[in-house]
Structures are given as structure tokens and as C-alpha cells.
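Appendix B, example 12.
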Amino acid sequence: MKKKLGLIVNPVAGMGGKLGFKGTDGAEILSRCRQMNATPESPLKARDALKKLLPIKDELEIITYPLEMGEIEAREAGFQPTVIGEIKPGETTPEDTRKAAKEIASKNVDLLLFAGGDGTARDVYSVVKDQVVALGIPAGVKIHSAVFGVNPRRAGEVALMFLQGKIKNVRLAEVMDIDEDAFRQGRVSAALYGYLKIPHEQNLVQGMKSGRAVNEDLEAENIAFYILDQMEPESIYILGPGTTLFQIKKKIGDKGTLLGVDVVKNKQFIATDVNEKQLIEILDGKKAYIVVTVIGGQGYIFGRGNQQLSPAVIKKVGKENIIVVATRDKIAAFGEKPLLVDTGDEETDKYLSGYIRVITSYHEQRLMKVEY
């Protein structure tokens, strides 16, 4: 008997990332993304995951929704899916995701694979709860939930091993989401919505984003002083989002953003809350550094909440000019686990892999491995 894989693709997931919109929830933001010719991230990432399942193509039935909600991606990956339900092409909504989840789950699928971000996970959870084993292909801007593969390829590998019976354990994993309107204004308002049942493979599934320890502020301040003291005159410094980097921004001036990407030259802001296109224009022919921090509980330095720092931007700056900062407590919590990258481009992820120095305090660094 063939295994049944449910597939849902949120066709607009991730569109706002490179534009600096911090998400794609809401009709107004989606409209702006389309006006600016934003490229959806989920189709390519869904195909990357599905290609990992080709070894069991003849033993697998993929049940999906029409066109851009899964059918196209499945066919382009080399499958002949069973297509159910109806959509209005180019006009899909969260309600379509919920309908798809309900109808696909009713087909007694062995695994429900969905491509999107936290909003998509929340929509799937609202319908299936813990009644179906599910797994997310990370394709959104904000991915705080613990229900996603480390990257799309790893999500495909987990799905393959689970369907082959090589992963037998399942666990309940957190579905988190944030208020995007508050997020765009620099406020993080996250909430736990429930738990999806996922295949349990610790090294291939990402953790939930964690909060900050109380004593991290002093450590972050020491890091800030060190970075400021090391800044080269006339060089461009691209400062990513996050509370650790916000300590640097506060010492430069009051224009810096907590959750945006800001640009500094000669210890003054020259642009704030920029998108990918603006960064590429600023970088033209100039020496530059990218300063990023590590996402607590997950370990990502690129590909989660800082998609403005795209493969094109990273390659212009160069791996040798990437500076990673993180407090001692945050790094200690990872133990021997590596840092992670998920830029959406495998060549760039390979380029970033290896070892990198992480600044943990003034004149204090730690060598850490980077994987994808």
C-alpha cells in the first residue's frame, strides 16, 4: 500500500522578507509586495523539499490542493499528485490554507507537509490540532515555531525518513505566531497557539525561538562597545535586527530600529530599516561589513527575520567581512550544536558554512561551526 503525503503550499509566504516588511500577513502588505514585484519564496523551497522524496516516488501518493497551493510544485518536482479542492488562482487566502488542511487531513494522510511561516503553521494547527503528523517547510519571514525543518532540504529528508519508517518517534512541538503590525513598529508580541505533532529528529528540526536572560543586557553592552571601537572610518556597517545589535544602534543614535536592518558609516546612520534593493545600491563599490546576531534557541545567523541580507547582499560584502555577535549565555545554551544558515540559496549556504568567530564580549570570541 502506498504512503500518503499531504502537501500545502502558501504561495505568498516569504514575499515580504527581502523588502523589509517583516512578514506578508494582511491584504495591504500583500498588495504592496505584489506592486514591488516581490518573489514568492515558498514554491522553490517546497520543490527543494519534495525532491528529497523522489527515492520513494513509486511508493508515494501526494494529495494536494490545485495550482500554486501544491499541485504545480509537486509536478515540477517530478510527481503526479492527486489534486482535491478548489481555489481562485492568484487570490488565495488563509482560509484556503485552513480548508486545504481540513480536506487533506480527512484523506488519512501519513504526513502533512506544508510550506510557509508561522502564520501558515497557525492556520494548519487551527484545523488539524494534534490529530495528524505534520511538518513545516520553512518559507516565511518569521519562523518562531518549532514545527519546521532546519531548512527546506532537511524538511524533505525528515519527511522521507518518517515515511520510510526510519523515524518512528513523534512529539508535540510549539506553534508560535506574532502580531505583525506590532512587529513592524518594533514591538514583539508573540503567543503560543498550540502544539502540532511532528516527526522527532532533533538535528533536522529547528527549535522554538527563545527569549532573553536578564543578565544579557550587560553582555550585549560590552559587545556594543567592542564593535564601535573596531569600526573603520569610511567603511559601511550593515547592522541586522535583534536586541543584541540594538545595543550598538542605541549608542550611535536614536534612529536605529530594533527589528530592521540599518546602515552606519563613520558611526552615523546613513539609512534605517532598509530592504535588499536599497542595500545593493548602498554597497555599490564600497567596503562593507555585515553584523548579525544569533537567534536564541534556534542558532540561525541568516534566513530568519533578516532576509534583507540576501545571497546577493552577502556575496557583495564577502564572507570574510561578516561579523557575528552573541552573548555568552546565548552561545552556552547551544552546547556543541552548530550555528545555522538558510538563505534560500544552497550555493550561498555552502559558502557560509565552515567556522566563524563569534564575538561574545569585549575582546572575547568563540570559534563556532556553521552548517546548513
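The longest helix spans residues 216-230. The chain has a mean pLDDT of 90.
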